[in-house]
Design a protein that fits this description.
263 residues; alpha/beta; Rossmann fold; 2 domains; five-stranded parallel β-sheet; 5 strands; 10% strand; elongated
Length: 263
């Protein structure tokens, strides 16, 4: 049976890779009829539908490729929890000038103060703005680079990482290190320095980075590059969301700790 003109138009739109327009066609026709739209209005809503869907898919792809631990945004960030947080400074960073200027952001704070949330939320913002973002925890990143030494693809992988617009390295802390880790990190930071934007989160002082990575001399070279024109968010004196936040366990209640009450 010969398809109707409507069915043929849908098939043709899908053949042109305009699936969203094909799916929206009948709704758009009904709306055009009900609202007495002209041809240009009808075509505008069809094109808008396709562009909106394509933009959303691109965003979802960038978010997936970024490798965030989970989607943490500023919409679900508790702005009032950290009294020491410079909110105005952070909101300036949300304009993403540091990404276009290829600068580094350092987020300093003890465990649980929201460093990963801030770094991820900035990364999500960058994805929404069309930037390519990569997120790694330091331990996983160095393990990955170390594995490339077996097939001599280290330079290739570093070059691939340095093609993104924003690299986030989370949880710079005391890790299970190997002798090669400091030089691998230096190679990566050198490849990215002034070419792309970077964010580092750390709960230890920069003096301790050398001890954490195992090579103070190489670590000093890394820190020198990171500090060049860096922006700093310092929440080291801040409160811990895990132990002092609204969802923290009440340590005064024995029923939450599965400890039988004293008789």
């Amino acid at each position: 049976m010969k398809p109707s003109l409507l069915q043929k138009l849908k098939q043709d739109l899908r053949a042109l890779r305009l699936k969203d327009m094909a799916d929206f066609l009948e709704t758009a026709l009904q709306t055009a009829h009900n609202e007495h739209q002209g041809h240009i209005q009808f075509l505008d809503q069809m094109v808008t539908c396709q562009l909106r869907a394509r933009t959303q898919r691109s965003l979802e792809r960038r978010l997936k490729q970024a490798g965030f631990p989970r989607k943490m945004t500023f919409e679900d960030f508790d702005w009032a929890f950290q009294p020491g947080l410079n909110v105005e400074y952070l909101k300036d960073l949300m304009q993403l000038d540091f990404v276009s200027n290829r600068q580094t952001v350092l987020i300093l704070g003890k465990t649980g103060t929201g460093k990963t949330h801030i770094a991820t939320a900035l990364g999500v913002k960058a994805c929404e703005a069309g930037y390519r973002v990569l997120f790694f925890k330091l331990q996983a990143l160095l393990s990955r680079l170390y594995a490339t030494m077996a097939d001599d693809t280290t330079d290739e992988v570093i070059t691939s990482i340095a093609r993104c617009h924003l690299l986030i390295i989370d949880h710079v802390d005391f890790i299970r290190t190997k002798n090669e880790y400091p030089s691998l990190l230096l190679d990566l930071v050198s490849a990215c320095h002034q070419r792309i934007a970077m964010i580092f989160t750390t709960s230890i002082s920069f003096e301790q980075w050398g001890e954490a990575l195992g090579s103070p001399s190489l670590t000093n070279a890394i820190v020198d590059r990171i500090f060049d024109h860096a922006k700093v968010i310092n929440i080291r004196p801040g409160l811990s969301y895990r132990t002092q936040g609204p969802h923290a366990p009440d340590l005064g209640r024995t029923d939450q700790l599965n400890i039988p009450p004293q008789k």
